[in-house]
Design brief:
200 residues; 3 helices; six-stranded antiparallel beta sheet
C-alpha cells in the first residue's frame, strides 16, 4: 500500500480534532501498569509499530534542498474506536488513542480496550510539523479475548517533503512480541488469538 504524504491539511485536521476532544488523549500502550485479563466488557490487544526510514537520501535535488530527515522525527499515530456507521472515523467525539514511535525502534504495545472496532487512522510528525498521512488499518477487540494484531511497519524515505510517498504493511511477529510481553505480564501469554490488522 503506497500513499502520498498528506501535507498541512491532514495534520491540521489531526490537531484541530485533538483540540475539540481535549488534549489528554490516552496512549494505546498501557504497559508499565497493571492490565486486567480480558473479560465480558473488553479484550486485550497486543501489537507493535515499527517505523523504517531510508538510510540514503533520494538523488532528487529538491529533496536534498528542501527535504527533512525522517530518521530524526518522532511519529505519532491516531487510533479511533469507530462505529459501524462511520468506519472512516469522521465523527469528532469518538474514543481516541495515540501511540508514538521513533524510527528504528519497535514500539510494542499492550492495551485493554472496550469491545469494538478500532482504526489506525493517521500518522504525523509529533509536534508542530504539518507532515503526516492516512493509514486505514482496522482491528477488532472481542470480549474475553486476548488478540495479537501484528507488527505495523511504516516505510518512509530518509528525507520527507510535500508529496513524498510512503508504504506500510503488517507483519506477523507474534513469537518475539508475545515472548517480550509475557515477561512483564505472564497472565496474558496463554491462548492468544492471532488476528492481524486489515486494510479498511
Amino acid at each position: 500500500m503506497s500513499r502520498p504524504i498528506a501535507y498541512f491539511v491532514r495534520a491540521f485536521c489531526f490537531c484541530a480534532t485533538s483540540v475539540l476532544v481535549g488534549c489528554s488523549t490516552p496512549s494505546l500502550d498501557m504497559t508499565g501498569r497493571p492490565i486486567a485479563p480480558a473479560g465480558p466488557d473488553g479484550g486485550v490487544v497486543i501489537g507493535s509499530v515499527l517505523v523504517h526510514a531510508d538510510q540514503e537520501a533520494p538523488d532528487s535535488w529538491f529533496n536534498r534542498l528542501f527535504g527533512r530527515k525522517a530518521a530524526g522525527f518522532t511519529y505519532e499515530f491516531e487510533i479511533l474506536r469507530v462505529q459501524a456507521t462511520d468506519l472512516k472515523g469522521t465523527h469528532p467525539y469518538l474514543d481516541r488513542y495515540q501511540l508514538d514511535a521513533k524510527p528504528g525502534e519497535e514500539r510494542i504495545f499492550v492495551a485493554r480496550l472496550p469491545v469494538g472496532t478500532y482504526l489506525f487512522k493517521t500518522f504525523r510528525h509529533e509536534g508542530l510539523s504539518a507532515m503526516g498521512g492516512d493509514v486505514g488499518l482496522t482491528f477488532h477487540v472481542a470480549p474475553e479475548t486476548t488478540s495479537y494484531i501484528g507488527r505495523f511497519v511504516l516505510d518512509i524515505p530518509r528525507r520527507v517533503a510535500m508529496g513524498t510517498s510512503y508504504t506500510y504493511h503488517v507483519q506477523d511477529a507474534s513469537e518475539t512480541t508475545l515472548a517480550a510481553v509475557q515477561k512483564q505480564y505472564p497472565h496474558l501469554g496463554g491462548q492468544v488469538v492471532i488476528a492481524p490488522m486489515r486494510a479498511r
